[in-house]
């Protein structure tokens, strides 16, 4: 059960978010990170106007989608934002409207192969870029990224829609801004896309990401509270 105070907290965040983006040239889409949250929280957020929810665990996405399908009136999209594993992509493909976290050529190939196997399904994805060159983060280097793009930009089974990055929490605001500027510039080089998706920014820095051109921001704690 979602309390009145929790609903008020969601409304307060949405008011702040909408006020921040109202004069922005690029109006980013909000991905409410709902991992480890009960389905009631998703229902509450959906009723207040949120229409994209981000999940990080394949089986949790599958189970929540079962609940969604039982309720015909629900109209929102799932995005998958967590680590991918070959043996679990079956729970994601065809359920998630967009996968943010394709971090290697081999994983892109696994997604393409699975789509071929189950029929003529095309899965939209973002390539995850390790823009800060963090040894603890997954993702493509710049050189690897353009190799992957050449391999998959014309695929019948994968729709490459843009780029995503995750930064270390300990970076300062100037460092984060610099990284987000770099990702935006990389995105502009995806000439086969009219408007590439740029997924960057979370609860603690989404405003910086929006200032630097994010088209998708992934916000959890500021919407739903701590897990």
What key phrases describe this protein's structure?
227 residues; alpha/beta; TIM Barrel
Please write out the topology.
Elements: H1 4-21, E1 29-33, H2 39-47, E2 52-55, H3 58-69, E3 77-80, E4 98-102, H4 105-118, E5 123-128, H5 142-152, E6 158-164, H6 173-188, E7 197-199, H7 206-211, E8 216-219, H8 221-224
Parallel strand pairs: 1-2, 1-8, 2-3, 3-4, 4-5, 5-6, 6-7
Walk me through the structure.
This protein has eight helices and eight strands; from the N terminus they run αβαβαββαβαβαβαβα. It has helices at 4-21, 39-47, 58-69, 105-118, 142-152, 173-188, 206-211, 221-224; strands at residues 29-33, 52-55, 77-80, 98-102, 123-128, 158-164, 197-199, 216-219. The chain has an eight-stranded parallel β-sheet with strand order 7-6-5-4-3-2-1-8. α6 links the parallel β6 (158-164) and β7. The longest helix has 18 residues, at 4-21.
First-to-last CA distance: 15 Å
Largest sheet: 8 strands, parallel
CATH architecture: Alpha-Beta Barrel
Number of domains: 1
What's the rounded overall pLDDT mean?
Answer: 96
CATH class group: Alpha Beta
- Largest beta sheet: what is the strand line-up? 7-6-5-4-3-2-1-8
CATH fold-level topology: TIM Barrel
Q: Name the structural class.
A: alpha/beta
Quick one: overall form?
globular
Low-confidence stretches: none
CATH superfamily descriptor: Alanine racemase
Spell the H/E element sequence: HEHEHEEHEHEHEHEH
Strand content: 15-25%
Work out the number of β strands. 8
- Helix share, percent: 25-40%
Number of distinct helices: 8
Specify Rg, calculated over alpha carbons: 17 Å
């Amino acid at each position: 059960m979602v309390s009145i105070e929790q609903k008020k907290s969601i409304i307060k965040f949405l008011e702040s978010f909408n006020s921040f983006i109202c004069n922005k040239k690029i109006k980013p889409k909000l991905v409410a990170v709902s991992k480890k949250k009960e389905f009631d929280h998703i229902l509450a957020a959906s009723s207040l106007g949120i229409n994209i929810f981000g999940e990080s665990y394949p089986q949790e996405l599958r189970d929540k989608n079962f609940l969604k399908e039982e309720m015909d009136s629900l109209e929102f999209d799932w995005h998958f934002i967590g680590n991918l594993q070959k043996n679990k992509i079956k729970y994601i493909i065809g359920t998630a409207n967009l996968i943010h976290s394709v971090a290697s050529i081999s994983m892109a190939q696994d997604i393409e192969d699975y789509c071929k196997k189950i029929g003529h399904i095309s899965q939209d994805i973002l390539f995850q870029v390790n823009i800060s060159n963090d040894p603890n983060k997954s993702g493509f280097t710049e050189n690897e990224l353009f190799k992957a793009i050449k391999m998959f930009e014309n695929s019948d089974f994968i729709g490459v829609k843009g780029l995503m990055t995750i930064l270390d929490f300990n970076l300062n605001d100037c460092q984060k801004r610099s990284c987000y500027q770099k990702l935006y510039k990389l995105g502009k080089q995806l000439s086969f896309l009219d408007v590439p998706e740029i997924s960057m920014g979370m609860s603690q820095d989404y405003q910086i990401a929006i200032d630097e051109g994010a088209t998708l921001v992934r916000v959890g704690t500021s919407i739903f509270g701590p897990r």
